[in-house]
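Category: protein sequence paired with discrete backbone structure
Discipline: computational structural biology
Format: plain text, a pair of labelled lines
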Amino acid sequence: MSGVSFEGVTKRFGDVVAVDDLTLEVLDHEFLVLLGPSGCGKSTALRMVAGLEDPTAGIIRIGDRVVNDLEPRNRDVAMVFQSYALYPHMTVRRNIEFPLRTRKVPPEERERAVQDAAGVLGLKSLLDRKPGQLSGGQRQRVALARAIVRRPSVFLMDEPLSNLDAKLRVQTRAELIELQRRLGVTVIYVTHDQVEAMTMGHRIAIMNEGVLQQVGPPQAVYERPANLFVARFIGNPPMNTVVGVVTERDGRLHLAIPGGEQPLPESLWPALRARDVRSVVLGVRPEHLRIDPEGPVAATVAVVESLGHERHVLCRLEDGQLVILRIPADVPPPGEGSMVRLSADAAQLHLFDGESTERIAAVAGEVVEARR
């Protein structure tokens, strides 16, 4: 077993709580992504697994072993850093085999492991070069090869693609996914890039200010965010969110928002009445918002952005708030400064409690895997 578990793990630096009561299980052979903005505690959590930081409270297990008091070299993990951390005076071969030399592995076995790792990552023709003679993508692959030769039970990756250009990131993402599948290892991958999280992770765990916000498969988190933070953080462009007041007329519930009144689907009525909330936040993804002459909400077109394959139409509501909708590139866009009316598919509306910011479930029995 090579799963990793955090049980009530907290890390404080003086008065600053970097990780707050983190409880999370990473399954054996899983690719789990820790996602969140800078300073949210994700790298600190990773460093505690590696043994580079000691938890203030809680238990960390790798497999069935409690590792809180184990030295990093005894934890059977390998870490890949954003900065590559290669030795500039050593060749690629020497960099890759360095962990094996420190363990006094026999030369023949070292060479076999280096050749295997270099073959997996397409580095065989570069073994005699030094890091300064390599591109950024090649150096990142050397760092990965150095981790692979150790055959650890867990790979820890801290924003390893941040220094690569856009094209190399796409290529290396695919290589990492294939590598994890081929080796069948457990990976904990830290990033602030939601595209990496959505495309690479079996599950993603979203953190903010040291607190775990939601855990789940990428598409499930995108479709059913547990709270406003997750809703606004996941998605590019992000989810549109507008504060409104629930009103009832003739037994039907509506949401009064700047520029109009949005009818609420009947599936939401029981939850709203049970909570007796009035101030809520309406959320709708840009792809689920459309221009409709009969739409219930008025807005003014501020900017039209062309992205080649699609357009983003940025509209201002009566209070000046911006909302974004996507339209296909072959659909004529509205003129900037023109008045439009907007509507959304009722089944795609999200509601969040205005005070707690938690999601109000649209369907009875809906499951949202959140902090626990």
